[in-house]
Amino acid sequence: MNTLIISDLHRKLKYISQLIIKTPNFGWIISLQVLSGFLTVAGIPMLIPVLEYTRTDSATGDKSVTMDLFSKILKTLGVEPSFYKLLFLASLLIISSQILVFLSSIVANFAQQRLSMEYRKRIFRSYSVVNWLWVTTDKSGEMNHAILREADGAGVAHLNAQRIVIYLIQVTAFMFIVIRLSFSVTILAFALYGILFLINSRNSSHVRKLSTKFNETYKSVANATVNLLQNKKFFKSSMLLDAFLTKVFCSVDETVRVKKLIILREELQSLWTFVTTFGFIVLLMGLRGVLGLGFSELLVVLLVFMRLGPHFNSLFTAYLALNTQVPIHRSIEKRLSNLKQNKEIYGNEI
């Protein structure tokens, strides 16, 4: 059982890595995220000495280590530590981190648009040189479906693969901050999010199967649409229109049913991820004394998990969305492969 799980995970990671490598400017996207994560790791812990400066009670003994650490770093750089200097530096690092996240997301979205355009062009270019026998056996509805819907879906698959890397780097950065602040909290966080990872992975597998069914049913609707338009005179002059529409409506109803199931699973995953993260924050507040968290450390840990929760949710949302796009991406890649294998062969002799 464990071997099957590991094998399935390896296959998924390999597929995701292939999507990432084939994405334009993927190196820039990852580099910007790594730099953003570094600035986050440097900026957020700096809020601890900032908070210590605001405290009026000097009886706390947990602030000296953190204060001394940042004081030594700043004095090494030739800067005398003070409340305003630390606040300015922490704000600069955190804001710069978010600007890099913004730039990385823009590059990733632009790459997705470029890929969708290239998929459409490849289909048109390949279709123009495919042999006639293949054309006569191909369904026009599936061709339209590939150009109008699957090209976009394939581009979005690349985008979601990039988003997985983006959010994974951010989650790693925040978890590194938690490790620096409290080892006990880190152990609890790994246990919690490890269980959540297994649950969400299981849910993503179900969504991928539903998405495969949705894409195939959508193709049948597209084929029926083209069939109706190409044979409208026949249907108008015969008694078969009602039977044809009944069959089409069954396919339409099935697409709606499957899509509702996909939406339900997506929304439920967002809900239980949020509830779990919020419950963990409440647990940290309740166990503050047991975990040995000082006042400032507790505030920063809560800030980290308030930021970590949405990033973790976004990570699994991107993974879930990728699972809905994988069948579409595989479908268009299969079509392009068939077009290439059935390319018209030209010779010099009659």
Distance between the termini: 60 Å
Helicity, as a percent range? over 70%
Give me the strand/helix succession. HHHHHHHHHHHH
Unreliable residue runs? 56-65
Radius of gyration: 27 Å
Give the beta-strand count. Answer: 0
Q: Could you say which overall geometry the principal axes of the C-alpha atoms support? A: elongated
Can you offer a commentary on this structure?
With 350 residues, the chain is mainly alpha-helical. Helices cover 87% and strands 0% of the residues. It is built from 12 helices and no strands. It has helices at 2-21, 26-43, 47-54, 63-76, 83-128, 132-137, 140-181, 183-230, 232-237, 241-286, 288-291, 295-341. The radius of gyration is 27 Å and the shape is elongated.
Summarize the structure.
By secondary structure, the chain is an all-alpha fold. The chain has twelve helices and no strands.
Topology:
Layout: H1 2-21, H2 26-43, H3 47-54, H4 63-76, H5 83-128, H6 132-137, H7 140-181, H8 183-230, H9 232-237, H10 241-286, H11 288-291, H12 295-341
Helix pairs in contact: 1-7, 2-5, 2-7, 3-5, 3-12, 5-7, 5-12, 7-8, 7-12, 8-10, 8-12, 10-12
Give the key terms:
mainly alpha; 350 residues
